[in-house]
Amino acid sequence: xxxxxxxxxxxxxxxxVVLVSGGLDSTTVLAIARSQNYQCHCLSFFYDQRHEVExxxxxQIAKTFGAHQHLVLNLDLGRIGGSALTTDTAxxxxxxxxxxxxxxxxxxxxxxxTIFLSHALAWAEVIGAPDIFIGVNAVDYSGYPxxxxxxxxxxxxMANLALKSAMEGQTRIRIQTPLLYLTKADIIxxxxxxxxxxxxxxxxxxxxxxxxxxxxCDSCLLRKRGFAEAGVPDPTVYSRD
Length: 241
Description:
Elements: H1 3-11, E1 14-19, H2 24-35, E2 38-46, H3 53-64, E3 69-74, H4 97-100, H5 112-127, E4 131-133, H6 149-162, H7 164-167, E5 174-176, H8 184-193, H9 218-230
Parallel strand pairs: 1-2, 1-4, 2-3, 4-5
């Protein structure tokens, strides 16, 4: 290899697939990946969720952070059902923290992170990205089983058994979870340090027809508490403001 070719290889950007939902957590993860000089290939999904407004936020966020690409895939999870986010089942409201951390709520979407990560894995192999970033959290969350550290470790192990590029020694996939052990307040503080404008993010499970957050679902309550504990104003527009 010539010195010139070696220098060119050294300056090639690191590639990463970043799952971007339009919410607070995934936006912070994108900001972290960009701060680490990754070339970010953002991936979002329309999966028949009732909060489709989050995709509008995701598109704006990807553009704001200079994503190299932003791919939006359509998944017909509404036909599978099983979740208040993809059916007409009422979204739980006004639950206390003890209730949120006990059991798995009806807002759980069956196998959602497995489905999302599998698509991210396929794209990562195609573009030669060894890193997949996802904004899962095991502290301030609603009890979803596919946000647990043991699940993520198992998926990473499976990923490296499944890929042609891994088998041939070209790529080893890493599932990057920089928010895994942070509180919502910690996440918000980290994002603010990296210049995240949380006013453009959307977290609500049950927005009104104008796309305004309800203020009472689990996601809204966790978001509100995060801003309060971080000691910074909550820029969210709620339907009853």
